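Methods, example record. To illustrate the input and output format used throughout this study, we show the complete record for Phosphotransferase family protein. The sequence lines were provided to the predictor; the line carrying structure tokens was produced by it.
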Amino acid sequence: MDFRLDDGWLIRPLGGNTGTAYMGVKEQKKLFIKRNTSPFLAALSLEEITPRLLWAKHISTGDTLTAQEWLNGRSLTREEMKETRVAKLLARVHHSGVLSKMLQQVGGRYIFPGELLNDYFRGLSSELRQHPLLREVAARLRAHPPKLDYHECEVCHGDLNHKNWLLSDSNQLYLVDWESAALSDAALDISMLMCQYVPRSEWQEWLVKKYGAQMTPTFNRKIGWYCKINLLLSIKDKHQRGHFFEMNQDILQLAEIFSEQRD
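The corresponding predicted structure is encoded as:
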């Protein structure tokens, strides 16, 4: 439903899964407005990770609206997701002490390896629970979880779909939609992106030359662990939504990685 703010901005819904995104229109001006977004948005704006935050207002419903500059642009294509500029922006997020401090201050949640395994098994269908490959992978992940202390956690976006990357008409790249942000191992984000968008044969080059990772045996094991848990979670999600072709593609990818990276 459209509504108008006291200062004359007409707010129109943009649609989407959450129903919290709007376009603000006043004369010839436009704003991108969201309802009840995290206070973390202010830090992301200051670091130029997201478009500039202009204001935040409480409205009569008790909700908070935040307004960001409206940028004409487009989402990245799947092919563009393996480019250096994507890797560099993601690395800047992960290694930012400012973002980490701010997310902690606004009560950002922590995600540890054990929680990811618990999420996988919670409500898992009997069909997937009895699948030989999935059962063996899950058992090995449970037996060899990577170590992660609170002080090692970095800011992770948590939903690196190509539609959450905005390339403006001025060629500035932004990462948007931070509702899944958490403090965790950067390998959680890295593996999520690689599994979706980077061909297996290019993983080493992407990690070293584009993201800037230091390849050590410990880091390799972590990447392998998080790749496998991300694929398990993706398989579970696609099974629940009835996307069986995509689910089987994930199973094939998991089988390939598992045969190469047995712990």
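Annotations derived from this record:
The chain has a mean pLDDT of 92.
The two ends are 53 Å apart (CA to CA).
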